[in-house]
Specification:
Elements: H1 6-26, H2 29-45, H3 53-73, H4 75-78, H5 95-106, H6 109-119, H7 125-132, H8 136-162
């Protein structure tokens, strides 16, 4: 594939996936858009030769996960509050989908990315391990722990909803 067109090809083929993973990992749509843009601009200015589409997809997932980790560690996130109004942009989701994505984004990044690939992309444990360059047993543990954390969050959500309290959106 021509290096001049690799970023455009990658954006057209995997742009939505990168945006969804970024949004699930960082929980902020505007930041997810920025992260997605940064990734494809980097790919455009520093073309990489990929063996296949799967290699390109794995690279994009890895870079997205790392950029989201950096975002969560940034000074801006750790020393400022969150916006009250959540910007959704043109990314249409039903209410249940938004709630599940909020729960996923409240998980630590190492669980959020794995749970997203497992639940939304319907990837097998072996595929997730290959995409994220992790051992199969590590992925199994992350899925098991992620599910446990989601169950706790769902139980907390149900408890506060039954009591008539305002729902909690962050851990």
């Amino acid at each position: 594939m021509d290096n001049d067109n690799i970023s455009l090809y990658a954006f057209r083929k995997f742009g939505d996936m990168v945006l969804r993973v970024a949004y699930t990992s960082c929980g902020n749509y505007a930041e997810a858009e920025d992260i997605t843009q940064d990734i494809f601009l980097y790919l455009h200015s520093n073309p990489v030769d990929f063996e296949s589409d799967e290699h390109l997809k794995a690279w994009l997932l890895k870079v997205t996960t790392n950029k989201c980790k950096n975002y969560k560690r940034s000074f801006r996130v750790s020393h400022t509050g969150t916006l009250e109004e959540d910007y959704q942009g043109s990314y249409n989701m039903d209410t249940t989908d938004v709630e599940v994505r909020e729960l996923l984004s409240s998980l630590p990044t190492k669980y959020g990315a794995v749970m997203y690939l497992y639940l939304y992309e319907s990837r097998t444990v072996e595929e997730i391990a290959a995409l994220l360059d992790k051992k199969i047993n590590t992925v199994k543990s992350l899925i098991r722990r992620g599910k446990a954390k989601l169950k706790i969050e769902l139980a907390d959500e149900n408890q506060t909803t039954k009591q008539g309290s305002v729902r909690r959106t962050e851990l």
